[in-house]
Amino acid sequence: MLIEVLRHAKAYSRKRWNGASDRERPLDDAGEAQARCLVDELLAGGAIAAIHTSPLVRCTQTVEPLAAALGIAPIVDERLAELRTLPVHDRGSAWVASAWLGGRALAVVEELAAAPVEGRVVLCSHGDVIPALLATLVGRDGLVLDDVRVRKGGRVTLELARGRVCHAVAVAPPRLDPVSPTAGSSA
């Protein structure tokens, strides 16, 4: 089984977002261009059976073009979301937050591994959830990764066998044409 762990495309910065909630913060123009480019990249890798996404707007917008191209509805899963406050008392310890976020995302991966499907599964999440998940997989499965951070619009392809990740490949974000009116920095 293959799982594409995708970080959402470039969104408006938190500092410049004037919306009511960070959960509603959308992609910017460069992020929209990345999301469109991701369709061709992901489709070129073979069949996609399902798309799971964080409910935050920047993630749902990242997978919308892919879902439209496939004619499927993304499965929204709160366990792939980032949170500003946790339901566990951590006194500000980053390792507690990371463990909690990684554990939730790991549960999604384990459920997918227990009921494999024909084709790949795309999981779209965030820059704090994905490193926590990948670090957990490095520890649990002995996965070899040089870096667990993923740039916006980038992904890591996980290969699973017998419920464990046996191989991972990092894939850089799509390169955007710098002369395109919708292109911008992918960082």
The first-to-last residue Cα distance is 29 Å
Shape label: globular
The count of β-strands is 6
Average pLDDT confidence is: 90
By CATH, the topology is Rossmann fold
Task: Describe the structure concisely.
The chain has helices at residues 29-44, 57-70, 94-114, 129-141, and strands at 2-7, 48-53, 75-76, 120-125, 155-161, 164-171. The chain is built from four helices and six strands, in the order βαβαβαβαββ.
Report on this structure.
The protein is built from four helices and six strands, in the order E-H-E-H-E-H-E-H-E-E. Strand 2, helix 2 (57-70) and strand 3 (75-76) form a beta-alpha-beta unit. Helix 1 (29-44) crosses helix 2 (57-70) and helix 3 packs across helix 4. It has one domain: Rossmann fold (3-Layer(aba) Sandwich). Residues 181-187 have low confidence and may be disordered. It has 187 residues and is of the alpha/beta class. Strands 3-2-4-1-5-6 form a six-stranded mixed β-sheet, sandwiched between helices. Helices cover 34% and strands 19% of the residues. It has helices at residues 29-44, 57-70, 94-114, 129-141, and strands at residues 2-7, 48-53, 75-76, 120-125, 155-161, 164-171.
